Task: structure prediction
Amino acid sequence: MGRLWQVQYRYYWQLVKYRFWLVTLSISVASCLVGTQLWGDICLNIVSKFFMGPTTVDLHQHEIVFPSLWLCYYLFPLIIVGNSFQVLWKQHVVQLLGYHFSKAHFGQLNLILVNLVAFLYTILGIGSMAMISCVNNTVPLRIGVLQGINAWLIWGLLVYAEVLLILLFQLLGNLINTALGLFGPTVLLVLTIYWDSRYNPLNLSVFQRASDLNMTTILVLVGSLLSLMLSYYYYYYYRYCEVY
Result:
């Protein structure tokens, strides 16, 4: 398993590294621009501006400003991953199966790799925002009763979970059709703008809705992640690998 990880990771990194660095650099530049605009602001910080979206009150009053920064942040990971796992399988399956690894190993490693992409993307994106927030003298980050480093940690975990959720939707869609893998998560994100519900697993991706962090929203998010992982593993193991 360790040998397969080394080979699979190296092949996968060669496929996505240019897109990964281009996207993360774009997020860092956008963070710097937003941070510069908010210099000394006592009402907004970089996170509340970058991940701003309509709340329940805004939806009821029909006062909706389309959250372009929010949408771009969650769409960019889809560009990084794309159909890379399908390419990886088709190009190297014969060589890797020659090492006598099972299809279950490939499915497990794919899930590990997509978790790694989500984690690195979140660390670099939220990390750059945290550093900029430290120097631009804006209002401290606050989520409910949490503020400071605790609020940053909670928000980082939420963003990581939401990015992973979107990528899992893409992985499942890609097993059927590459266009569906890109179009499906995009539609879900757009629907989330107008669907402020604790039963929407993407609801906490909007910063203004994270103040409603409770056990129900957490269970919905965690349950959705586990369900998508199991669904991907089942479909990949029993259906996709049989076709290819």
Remarks:
- Residues 54 and 190 are 12 Å apart (CA to CA).
- The chain has a mean pLDDT of 84.
- The first helix runs from residue 2 to 37.
